[in-house]
Write a structure and sequence with these properties.
mainly alpha, 2 domains, Rna Polymerase Sigma Factor, Chain: A, rod-shaped, 8 helices, Arc Repressor Mutant, subunit A, 0% strand
């Protein structure tokens, strides 16, 4: 239903006075146009319907200010655009919050799992080191835990480079076997990276 400016103004004047029948005429005349406009912005039938309802409600609530509107369709599209953009902004903010919470949870969850695995690995390693023969334990602690080179450990212990190398080889072999007895396969793969 198309209106001439004077007809539209008369209808708006009636709506301004609370005439529900006049509002129904405006609603039915503009619903499809505003809905089509909203759906192009939102790409969602449900959200477009919500925006049209909000836009029409604003018309009803304007009261005496309706007399100032010169082009109702243009006014409704402007209101519709603002409502649609508000919805899109709210949805984007919600999506950002969800992404942030998910990332935080994943980081916390991953770091908790990593911390547990690291602690378990450390305990198993310390157990295994305690079970090493004395000289292997000393060499392993110097080279692996304190970071000395084989040459530095050999000088400090007053033994040959080859002896240090042999002790480290035997210590690693023993510790790998110890880890095999104490861990699952995935944990073992991670632990073997240490050696």
């Amino acid at each position: 239903m198309a209106f001439h400016l004077t007809d539209e103004q008369e209808l708006l004047a009636k709506v301004a006075k609370g005439d529900a029948g006049a509002f129904k005429v405006v609603y039915e005349a503009y619903y499809n146009r505003i809905y089509g406009f909203a759906i192009r912005i939102l790409h969602s039938s449900e959200l477009a319907q919500e925006v049209v309802q909000e836009s029409m409600l604003k018309i009803w609530q304007l009261g005496h200010k309706l007399k100032e509107i010169r082009n109702l369709e243009s006014y409704l599209k402007t209101v519709c655009r603002h409502c649609a953009l508000d919805i899109l902004r709210r949805r984007e903010l919600e999506a950002q919050r969800v992404r942030a919470l998910t990332a935080t949870w994943n980081d916390a969850h991953n770091s908790t799992e990593e911390d547990l695995l690291e602690n378990e690995t450390r305990v198993i390693l310390e157990e295994g080191v305690c079970l090493l023969p004395k000289q292997q334990r000393i060499v392993f602690q110097l080279c692996h835990q304190e970071g000395l080179t084989y040459e530095q450990a050999a000088r400090q212990l007053n033994i040959s480079h080859g002896t240090v190398q042999t002790h480290m080889k035997l210590a690693r072999k023993f510790l790998r076997a110890h880890f095999l007895r104490r861990t699952d396969f995935v944990g073992l793969l991670l632990i073997l990276q240490i050696f």
